């Protein structure tokens, strides 16, 4: 009896072990949990010195532990131009690059990786990204040279009037492409050597000192610098030419403030008088050109005053026929101003014109 129990127990143990092995095979073989067929992005700096070819990464399929796998790649730099930039060892899955990268030509590459085994075993094709890491190998470049700007001579402090810009071919998201601006010199250094300042980030140029005077200094030349690495890297120089424009700080003045003229009655368009003026502002500028207005003495609207061809004279003419019997004399008050408003209140010049109407004796 004891012997029979021992045999039966042994058979049970055998059957249990056999069943256990079967379940183990089912779950470990047929139900094997496979690791992901994933390769993270590859980051490689540009301008590397090699040696070539240089290994970037190695891909490996989980199936490689069970069967022989072969690897290949396609995409730009593999089987598409530039063909041969990347290689893949069919046996080891090692991906290499054959020459230096240039991020300014291309910042990243996308390849498709394949793994094929015996029979029907194969991995689903997988995309991998190769990022080219930027190196500071490009100087900033000004978008033009020289830059030209205009500033009124009456501009207040902190008045910004022009902007210079520079570009950098390096990655703008890194310090390699972070450009900052400075002023190196100002010529002439009058009335002070630092009349202008530049915004280090935007390149905006502004006035920081009072004393601009077009009559004394009408042009300035600034040597400007752009530097990457937030101003501590590669540099380039350029020029900003500043023209000081005239502000309307001189009121026009009549050369003669009293005039007398005679005009026949019944004539329309007759020239009454020309009123000459002077102005100390920049000739031919809006601060120099003049305009005129009759402010009193012409309640009936018989006269008009316009600016003459020289821009420094007002011409009074008749626009309605005058009648000697109704009014023998008109006393007109005329003012003169510039096309541009004054930068600050200035006294205007006024001229008085006495117009005598001549009798037409034929009536």
Automatic annotation (TrEMBL):
One of its GO terms (cellular component) is cytoplasm. Gene3D superfamilies: Cadherins. GO terms for molecular function: beta-catenin binding; cadherin binding; calcium ion binding. One of its GO terms (biological process) is cell-cell junction assembly. It is found in: Cell membrane. Residues 1-24 form the signal peptide. Its main location: membrane. Residues 55-142, 143-254, 255-359 form the Cadherin domain. Pfam families: Cadherin. It comes from the Eukaryota. Keywords: Calcium, Cell adhesion, Cell membrane, Glycoprotein, Membrane, Metal-binding, Repeat, Signal. PANTHER family: CADHERIN-1, CADHERIN-23. This is B-cadherin K-CAM protein. It comes from Triplophysa tibetana.
């Amino acid at each position: 009896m004891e012997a029979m129990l021992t045999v039966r127990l042994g058979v049970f143990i055998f059957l249990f072990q056999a069943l256990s092995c079967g379940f183990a095979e089912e779950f470990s073989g047929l139900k094997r949990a496979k690791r992901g067929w994933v390769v993270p992005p590859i980051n490689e700096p540009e301008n590397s010195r090699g040696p070539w070819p240089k290994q970037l990464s190695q891909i490996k399929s989980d199936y490689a532990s069970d069967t022989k796998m072969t690897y290949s790649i396609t995409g730009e730099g593999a089987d598409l131009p530039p063909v041969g930039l990347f290689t893949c060892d069919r046996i080891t899955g090692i991906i290499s690059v054959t020459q230096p990268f240039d991020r300014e030509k291309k910042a990243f590459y996308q390849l498709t990786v394949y793994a094929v085994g015996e029979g029907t075993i194969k991995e689903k094709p997988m995309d991998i990204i190769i990022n080219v890491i930027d190196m500071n190998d490009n100087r900033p470049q000004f978008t033009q040279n020289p830059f030209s700007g205009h500033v009124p001579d009456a501009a207040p402090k902190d008045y910004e009037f022009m902007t210079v810009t520079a570009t950098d071919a390096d990655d703008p998201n890194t310090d390699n492409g972070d450009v900052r601006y400075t002023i190196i010199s100002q010529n002439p250094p009058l009335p002070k050597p630092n009349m202008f300042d530049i915004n280090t980030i935007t390149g905006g140029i502004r006035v920081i000192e009072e004393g601009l005077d077009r009559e004394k200094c009408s042009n300035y030349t600034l040597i400007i610098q752009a530097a990457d690495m937030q101003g501590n890297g590669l540099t380039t120089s350029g020029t900003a030419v500043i023209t000081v424009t005239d502000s309307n700080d001189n009121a026009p003045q009549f050369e003669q403030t009293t005039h007398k003229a005679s005009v026949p009655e019944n004539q329309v368009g007759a020239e009454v008088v020309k009123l000459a003026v002077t102005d100390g502002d920049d000739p031919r500028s809006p601060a120099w050109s003049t305009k005129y207005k009759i402010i009193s003495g012409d309640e009936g609207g018989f006269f008009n005053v316009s600016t003459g061809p020289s821009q420094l004279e007002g011409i009074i003419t008749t626009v309605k026929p005058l009648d000697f019997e109704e009014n023998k004399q008109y006393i007109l008050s005329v003012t003169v101003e510039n096309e541009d408003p004054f930068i600050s209140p200035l006294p205007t010049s006024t001229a008085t014109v006495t117009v005598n109407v001549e009798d037409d004796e034929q009536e």
